[in-house]
Amino acid sequence: MATVAPKLQTRWRAASPVRRAFAGQLSRWTLSIVLFFVIWEIIGQSGVTVAIVPPSEVLPDLAREIAEGELLSATLGTLQLAAVGFVISAAIGLAVGLLMGLSRPWNDVLDPLVSAMLSAPIAMFIPVIAVYLGLEFKAKVVGVVLFTVFIIIINTATGIREVPGSGIETARAFQTSRRRLYTNVIFPFASPYIITGLRLAVGRAVEGAILFELFLRAENLGLIIRNATGSFDLSELLGAVFFITIIAAGAMGLARIVEWRLLRWKSY
C-alpha cells in the first residue's frame, strides 16, 4: 500500500495539466454560450428584425417539440445517415491518405484531385447524385461521404508525411521490422493529424446529412427545416436550427474528448 500511493500521486500530478486545460476550456465554452444567449435575447427583444425571435420564445417551443418526440425521431434518422457516411468516409479516407503519405508517385497523382474536391462546393454534385443514384438513403450516404472523406484524406496524408525522417532512420538502424516501424514510429507521430481529421469529419458528416436531406427527398431534420420555412414559422425554424447546432456541437465535443483521451500521452 505504501508503494501504491506514491504511484497514484505521480499519475495525478502528470494528469493535472490535462485536467486544468480541460477545465479552462469548459469555462470558456460556458462563457461563450452565455454571451450568445444574452446577445440573441437582446437583438430579439429589440425588434430590429422580425427574422430573429428571442430565445425566451424559441426555447419553450423547442422543448415542446422535443417532448412530443417528433424532433428526437428525426434527429436519430439524421444521425444514422451521418454515422453510416462517416464510417465509410473514415475507411476510404484513412486508406487513401495512407497511400498518399507513403508513396510519392501516388501522392503526385491524387493530391490535385483531392485538393480540388475539398475546395469544390459539394452542393453542385446534388443533381448528378440524384440522376444516377436517386433520392433515397444510398444517394444521401454518397453525398455525406463526398462531404467528409477529403478532409480525412488530407489530414492523414499530411500526418504521414510529417513523420521526422530521423525517427524512421533510427528505427531502421535498430533493424526494426516494417510492422513495428508503422505501429511504433509512423502512426504515433501521425496520430494527431489523423485524429484531428476524423474529429473534423464528424461535424461535416452531420452537416452533410442535413444538407442532402434538404435537397434530395426531404426527411428527418431536413424535412422539419423545410416545413418550418414553408410555413414561415420563425420560432420553429430557429428552434430547429438551434437544435441542429447543439447536435453538431455535441458530436464535435464528443470527438474532441476522444481526441484528448487518445493523445493525452503527448502531455506526459
Could you give me the name of the CATH homologous superfamily of the largest domain?
MetI-like
Total helical elements: 10
Strand content: under 5%
What structural class do the secondary elements suggest? Answer: mainly alpha
What fold name stands as the CATH topology of the largest domain? Answer: MetI-like fold
**Roughly how many Å apart are the termini?**
25 Å
Please give the CATH class of the largest domain. Mainly Alpha
Task: Give structural notes.
- The protein has 268 residues and is mainly alpha-helical.
- The chain folds into two domains: 18-47; 55-267, Orthogonal Bundle (MetI-like fold), CATH 1.10.3720.
- 84% of the residues lie in helices and 0% in strands.
- The chain contains ten helices and no strands.
- It has helices spanning 4-46, 55-68, 70-102, 104-119, 126-133, 137-161, 165-173, 178-215, 220-230, 234-262.
- Helix 2 crosses helix 10 (234-262).
- The longest helix has 43 residues, at 4-46.
- The protein starts with a helix and ends in a 6-residue tail after the last helix.
- The model has no long low-confidence stretch (mean pLDDT 80).
In short:
With 268 residues, the protein is mostly helical.
Furnish the topology, listing elements before pairings:
Elements: H1 4-46, H2 55-68, H3 70-102, H4 104-119, H5 126-133, H6 137-161, H7 165-173, H8 178-215, H9 220-230, H10 234-262
Helix pairs in contact: 2-10, 3-4, 3-6, 3-8, 3-9, 4-6, 5-6, 6-8, 8-9, 8-10, 9-10
